[in-house]
Amino acid sequence: MQYRLLGRTGLRVSELFLGAMSFGDGGASPAEARRIIDLYDDTGGNVIDTANVYRDGQSESILGDVLHGRRDRFVLATKYTLSRDITDPNAAGNHRKSLTLSLEQSLKRLRTDYIDIYWAHLWDRHTPVDETMRALDDAVRAGKILYVGISDAPAWVVAQANTLAHWRGWTPFAGLQVPYNLLQRDIERELLPMAESFEMTVAAWSPLAHGVLTGRSCDLTPQQHTVVAAVREVADEIGATPAQVALAWTRSHSAAVHPILGASTVEQLADNLGVLDTTLSEEQVRRLEAAADFTLGFPSDFLAQSHPGAFGTASNGLDRGARR
């Protein structure tokens, strides 16, 4: 396992994150969760991601128990925003009250004094961005959280938030959490370029498209069938599993991307960790993407095809590294 820096911070995070969404009833038992975390730890992984609503809070509680005595060696991440009580209008959202109460609840369940990465789980269009950023910064200054991130939000919202944080000396978002896989490449249009521009870490959830890319699903659309067939073909060529090929593809475009491995059994995690030894050739990446039939759309495609007359023929020799 190799490590990178979280966004523009000095925090070292492993190249693969572990998702704990399946820990609890209907998923991994506490004993199985311990085995999963032990394997991840033995491989060198150090980022565990959960949320206050996963399995109705069971995920956080299980993590609190399993990590007891070794919590500090992990980068522990959780989220707030989604409702803790659907009958209470203030039990959800990114406003200060929701943040404060959700954070206190998570700290108790996780049996810790601080959260390493605290994510806003979803863009809340009803809460001003400056309220969210100031409330998060207050929690950082209080020592209850160390770094902040945002999940599932438009690129313009994240850019606005980080620009505002820069102007006002608040803690900016160091990470962005979004879905990314061969069947869902939307982030390549705006979100991934934005994150790279702000030097943010991108945590990719559902890198296996909820298991579709592993080839275990029988009820596939024509497009899904084409992509799964391409993944299987490449897997056979390099002696890997379909899951390993699908995960390797998510890492092929940008070093900012860290796939979140969401396993409910230690066997699933062991298979997924095999991506560390899986390398795709440029030709194989192109073949997989051709099967996915994805286009960036406007304005990216339009700008890429701009006629030389747009900037003049002299711009063809422009040194992109020269800024003065």
From TrEMBL:
One of its GO terms (cellular component) is cytosol. This is Aryl-alcohol dehydrogenase-like predicted oxidoreductase. Pfam families: Aldo_ket_red. The keyword Oxidoreductase applies. PANTHER family: NAD(P)-LINKED OXIDOREDUCTASE SUPERFAMILY PROTEIN (PTHR43364:SF4), NADH-SPECIFIC METHYLGLYOXAL REDUCTASE-RELATED (PTHR43364). It comes from the Bacteria. It comes from Streptomyces zagrosensis. Keywords: Oxidoreductase. Residues 16-291 form the NADP-dependent oxidoreductase domain. GO terms for molecular function: oxidoreductase activity. The keyword Hydrolase does not apply.
